[in-house]
């Protein structure tokens, strides 16, 4: 028989990006980040903003503080709240469990008071009106009024699979109306280095489209070199 784990484990030493690294992701669209990571990086599309009608900000960025809860559990999220630093994104792993809430309005209010920049979970949330009133940007897999438990076991400050991607504490999380993207800690500087070029390319194409551009130059080139052809 395996040894029973501690009810709650909290990592004592947590790696964190520098403030300059964090600031580089302010107001950056999630699509830009995916473009910088070979088209990848987004969590499952089931994880969406809890509010899209203007009641809450639709952009948040910061270092991940991962709370690895079991299904229907919130003990690890409680531990994350205890050690959270200003600007953190609390990421609550519910292991895809969607039959009860992973957080509600009071949790959001306390995280907001602690200076947390946002909340992300692959579980559901509840107390919609209170969440909006708390003012904390949040992304989740829907709403459920069912209550979670806080019995553990849980781990804080390590990593977990959330929305189909492994997230480690210290990774950069950026969330907006399109979804949630994770930049692994080891890739932070490489992604930052590409952002200016991606922005320039986007701005250039936007201007061309606004001026009437409507051609697929890749298709034109393929027709010209024979890799595509017109057929009757």
UniProtKB/TrEMBL annotation:
The keyword Lyase applies. Keywords: Lyase, Magnesium, Metal-binding. Substrate binds at residue 126. This is Putative 4-hydroxy-4-methyl-2-oxoglutarate aldolase. It comes from the Bacteria. It comes from Thalassobacter stenotrophicus. Mg(2+) binds at residue 127. GO terms for molecular function: lyase activity; metal ion binding. Its cofactor is a divalent metal cation; Mg(2+).
């Amino acid at each position: 028989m395996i040894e029973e784990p501690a009810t709650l484990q909290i990592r004592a030493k947590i790696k964190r990006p520098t403030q300059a690294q964090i600031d580089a992701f302010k107001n950056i669209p999630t699509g830009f980040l995916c473009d910088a990571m070979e088209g990848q990086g987004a969590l499952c599309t089931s994880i969406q903003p809890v509010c899209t009608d203007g009641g809450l900000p639709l952009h948040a960025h910061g270092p991940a503080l991962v709370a690895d809860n079991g299904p229907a559990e919130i003990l690890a999220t409680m531990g994350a709240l205890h050690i959270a630093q200003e600007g953190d994104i609390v990421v609550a792993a519910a292991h895809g469990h969607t039959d009860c809430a992973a957080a509600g309005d009071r949790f959001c209010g306390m995280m907001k008071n602690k200076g947390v920049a946002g909340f992300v979970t692959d579980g559901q949330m509840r107390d919609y009106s209170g969440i909006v009133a708390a003012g904390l940007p949040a992304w989740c897999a829907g709403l459920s009024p069912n209550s979670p438990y806080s019995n553990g076991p849980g781990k804080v400050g390590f990593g977990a699979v959330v929305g189909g991607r492994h997230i480690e504490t210290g990774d950069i999380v950026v969330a907006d109306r399109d979804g949630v993207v994770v930049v692994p800690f080891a890739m932070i500087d490489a992604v930052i280095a590409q952002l200016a070029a991606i922005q320039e390319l986007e701005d250039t194409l936007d201007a061309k489209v606004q001026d009437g551009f409507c051609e697929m130059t890749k298709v034109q080139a393929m027709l010209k070199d024979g890799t595509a052809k017109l057929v009757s």
